[in-house]
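Service request form, structural biology core

Requester: graduate student, group of Dr. S.
Request type: structure prediction, single chain
Budget code: on file
Notes: please return the result as structure tokens.

Sequence provided:
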Amino acid sequence: MRITSARNPKIKAWAELKTRRGRLEQDRFLVEGAREAARALAAGIRPCAWLVWPERAGAEEAARLAGAPVYELSESAMRRVSYRENPPALIGVFERPARRLADLPPDPRRVLVAVEIEKPGNLGAMLRSADASGADAVLVVGDAVDPENPNVIRASTGAVFALPLAVVDHAAAHAWLQERGLRLVAATPAAERVYWEADLSGPTAFAVGAEDRGLPPDWLEAADLAVRIPMEGTVDSLNASVSAALLLYEGLRQQRRA
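Core staff response, request fulfilled:
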């Protein structure tokens, strides 16, 4: 089917998926780009529609169009749907996954707990590091950006689909971590112990908060151990995704040695 008008009702509905409200109301989300769409498919997420810019789409994009209707969009229509300034040749409309605790591995050894991360780029980069370091699961906790935000997907390069991930409130996250016997390690500049001095060789959950506020008090109080990342320069905070990467890779190093 060919859609040329940017005012078409389908175009309007798909464009609303760029907002959190639209994603929640329609229970759908957008995946922009062939690589990210392929990773969503590989994760078993069901496509509802394929949106193609014919003038840009090649054989690689066309080969991925399976399991859902294909719509050929004009440039104006594609630009209205796309979150990017320079739209890709392919956008997939997918069903939103459930993101439930019940779907996470029962005996994880390394878990990232992303607490109230509001910047999509930060959460996406954290998920990318979690996937690269072999984390078993990720909890997105509290008033945080949703994992289906287009910038989260883009910054994670599609890792958001590969990771076992649950979106939960604070109480549910605390309970799940305790039930699985995970040692909760909180990252905070106020800690006395440097992170590489801590014993991270056992099953561990790393809690990282927003870089401007850090972790909420209840997470610091619940932590079995608080660690800090040395700051030798003039800045007083690290990007949240950098902090998560350092902790996850140190956990990986220690667990491999153990």
